[in-house]
Amino acid sequence: MSNRNVFRGMFDALVEARSRQAAAYVRNHMELMDDNDRRRSGFPTAGRRF
After folding, report:
1. Closest by alpha carbon to 16, among 26, 8, 6, 4?
2. C-alpha separations of 26 from 11, 22, 29 in Å
3. pLDDT at 10 over 90
4. C-alpha torsion 26→30→33→35, nearest 10
5. pLDDT band with cut points at 50, 70 and 90 for residue 28
6. CA 48, CA 36: separation in Å to the nearest integer?
7. Contacts 24+ apart (CB under 8 A), 6-13
8. pTM of the model as a whole
9. pLDDT digit string (tens) for 31-47?
10. Which letter, b or e, does each residue of 11-47 get, where b requires 16 or more Cβ atoms within 10 Å of its Cβ?
11. In angstroms, rounded to a whole number, what is the distance separating the alpha carbons of residues 50 and 48?
């Protein structure tokens, strides 16, 4: 395997891990918001999952 492929794989893994981390952060923050705050911000209410 060439060095370029190794670094590409490492970069892809890093991007995927950071994407999962960001999604978890947003999901946790959304759970703290009440329905009125979510509705005013244009997000779905508690009945729908994000």
Report:
1. 8
2. 23, 6, 5
3. yes
4. 150
5. very high
6. 14
7. none
8. 0.65
9. 888 888 888 988 877 66
10. eeeeeeeeeeeeeeeeeeebeeeeeeebeeeeeeeee
11. 7
